[in-house]
Write a structure and sequence with these properties.
- The chain is of the alpha+beta class.
- It has one domain: Translation Initiation Factor IF3.
- It is about 35% helix and about 35% strand.
- The mean pLDDT is about 85.
């Protein structure tokens, strides 16, 4: 079974004391193939959800989170607090997702 580290998007874990280990992050740059990009361009004209882009961002977010978690595991962290995500467009059809937070050790 793959080791997991609990992730929290709050600064504090109720009832838990811990010391800070440091920043952990995971990043992913992802693109969709040309066919889906053309389909999404046509969809943007008539409106509605651009599912190809939603899928792309979800896949990238999941991998960025996995990479963040691996950094935390490598540091022997017990959890990650203050988890945040940010995204940016590298170019059309290409997005970067950055997941970052603070690795902590329970005391």
């Amino acid at each position: 079974m793959e080791k997991m580290v609990p992730l929290y998007n709050t600064e504090n874990i109720p009832g838990q004391k811990y010391e800070l280990i440091g920043l952990v992050k995971g990043t992913m740059i992802q693109s969709k193939h040309l066919g889906k990009d053309i389909g999404n361009a046509l969809k943007s004209i008539v409106g509605g959800e651009l599912r190809g882009y939603s899928e792309m961002l979800n896949e990238a977010r999941a991998l960025a989170t996995k990479r963040l978690m691996q950094e935390a595991i490598d540091l022997n962290a017990d959890a990650v607090v203050n988890l945040r995500y940010t995204t940016s467009a590298v170019k059309q059809g290409v997005a970067e997702i950055l997941a970052y937070g603070t690795a902590v050790k329970f005391v």
